[in-house]
Amino acid sequence: MKNTSFHSSFKLNGKSFSEENDLLVYSKEISESLYRFLNDWFNTNDYVIVQTSGSTGTPKPIKLKKEFMKNSAIATGAFFKLKEGATALLCLSTDYIAGKMMLIRALTLGWEIDVVLPVSNPLEELKKEYDFSAMVPLQLRNSLKELSKIDTLIVGGGVVSNDLVNIIQKKPTKIYATYGMTETITHVAVKKLNQISNTSSKVESSIYKALPNVKFTQDSRNCLVIEASRVTDEIIITNDVVKLESNTEFEWLGRFDNVINSGGIKLHPERIEEKLSKIIQERFFVTGVSDTILGEKLILIIEGKKKKITLDNVKEFSKYEIPKEIYFIDKFIETETKKIQRKKTVSILLKALK
Questions:
Q1: pTM score, two decimals?
Q2: 237-263 residue pLDDT tens
Q3: All domains of the chain in start order, with CATH
């Protein structure tokens, strides 16, 4: 009997498979994580259980419908014009949703996917070229010399810094930042990071564009509301403050729960961090802490050893955007996927200052 649970053109590390069991046996030779996920994918349940990242709260298990995961894969293929036989590189862990979805895209659309370890420079030893891959910002930074091996690359799991965006402008690879979350089965929107048209009236690199069958609105807080009935049963109300360009395009301004009200002035940390990234090489973030005069005061926290930092002469800053205090901490608290846990890091810092 012909297999119908995955596309007949699907290949894993150059191998074709006629049955699920053959694929499962082979996947176990690659990694236990890959085998566990495929075993879940091929079972009789109509859902899989995945963990949220925990970057904005406690990680929690959620159910994702397999039908919705397939729909997400189809939408990505349509947006990037990736059809049957496309070559893809999986260099993310299949313990998390981004890695799982790379595999689902290949299984659903009939891609030829190769799996490598999720190391910091996954392209270093590779000889092949690929149509598509997904990376985190650290992998992108460490893969700059070999980036021409990938035609189209999506980057998620963290912010791509300004200096890295400048470095990749002339790279031949088409590079996109993604917007999404576990609940939306990875990305529902992407924005181009390089090869930007200078004739665009709006800075193209600041605008996220929706994938097929996704629509955007805003709530009373100016936060993004996502309607994506093919990947989720719920209308998703986010805590992301945006400027809505249309019902399929938006500019991301920052997290509502990160907004700092300092003396009546609302400050978006992410916008300030974008400016600071031009002069600070270490990992850092800004946040607000309680202040008897301002209500909240803006502070800057830098990972690493203490050193002199001068911000008074940064022309891009308004007077409200200059941090009142600068602190150094040896190591940020992170999630398992290396995202900074801001609140926990601040809590440790404040305890140490008492």
A1: 0.83
A2: 999 999 999 999 999 998 898 889 898
A3: 11-255 (3.40.50.12780), 259-353 (3.30.300.30)
